Amino acid sequence: MDYTTKIANTTFDHLFINAAGVYCQTAEQLDQIQEAEAVAAVMTKSATAELRLGNQEPRYAAFPDQHNTINSMGLPNLGLDYYLNYVLKSHLKRPTIFSVVGLSQTEIVANLKKLQASNYTGLAELNLSCPNVPGEPQIAYDFQTTDEILKQVFAFYDKPLGIKLPPYFDLAHFDQIAKILNRYPLAYVNSINSVGNGLVIDPKTDKVVMRPKDGFGGLGGAQIKATALANVRALRLRLRPEIKMIGTGGVTCGRDVFDHLLCGADLVSVGSQLAIEGPTVFARLEKELEAIFTEKQITSLDQVCGKLKIF
């Protein structure tokens, strides 16, 4: 199977990327993704202007038997300069996607201006969807602010830029956010980030498993697949064809990948299962996906991508 996919100025030989936040905080972790089989590109940790420690621990819990996770990381990262230095290395053999975040509109703009002024020409991703910073709302739920930020950003940023979105739960919200996004020359939309503010209780202690935010955290893994597919599908139907889709959420097996493709994803991002299984997950997923293609006699991605059947 030829997995070649292109987004803006970047060509990918496979379908999989790591979700921002998983196996990407340090250069060593990024290198592990670079070296893994079946990887399309390496996503950096969402970078704030300066190093950030994130929330108190415990801030992550996994339930491998259910393929589920909950986290309240709080954007720990080593700062924008650290990741910029990494993506500018000449020996990298995979494409990179530079994830940018900010705790304010001013910081977001400043970070992207720094990226604009740099020698980095690859894809960047603006993360407007982190649910785990205490006291900070998810920007992309505020449609007016999202519009204002994108208007300000695209007044100066002329390199390929995608956007990471939180999950939406109402059809009217899909209409509203798509109307905004279609105004701008976005390279892609990445949907979804974790489902914010879930709560998990430890049955042995009757305590929440997360220390930050009194136990509230972002849900990931198999439990969010239906929501992720709905968002990918709804946005694909509403966005301009030129805006590509990265599907994220609920990917634990090859069938999950296939479903994201059916809903319109051009690439598929893996987060929770990568954290549980490690970088070998990509090769396993590709092998399982190839078995599905063989069974269904599919020889081209064009036969799958966006081809979800309805009654």
UniProtKB/TrEMBL annotation:
It catalyses: (S)-dihydroorotate + fumarate = orotate + succinate. Its EC number is 1.3.98.1. It is found in: Cytoplasm. PROSITE patterns: DHODEHASE_1. Keywords: Cytoplasm, Flavoprotein, FMN, Oxidoreductase, Pyrimidine biosynthesis. Pfam families: DHO_dh. CDD domains: DHOD_1A_like. It comes from the Bacteria. GO terms for molecular function: dihydroorotate dehydrogenase (fumarate) activity. Residues 4-292 form the Dihydroorotate dehydrogenase catalytic domain. Pathway: Pyrimidine metabolism; UMP biosynthesis via de novo pathway. The keyword Transcription regulation does not apply. Its cofactor is FMN. Homodimer. Belongs to the dihydroorotate dehydrogenase family. Type 1 subfamily. NCBIfam families: PRK02506.1. This is dihydroorotate oxidase (fumarate). It comes from Oenococcus sicerae. The lineage of its organism: Bacteria, Bacillati, Bacillota, Bacilli, Lactobacillales.
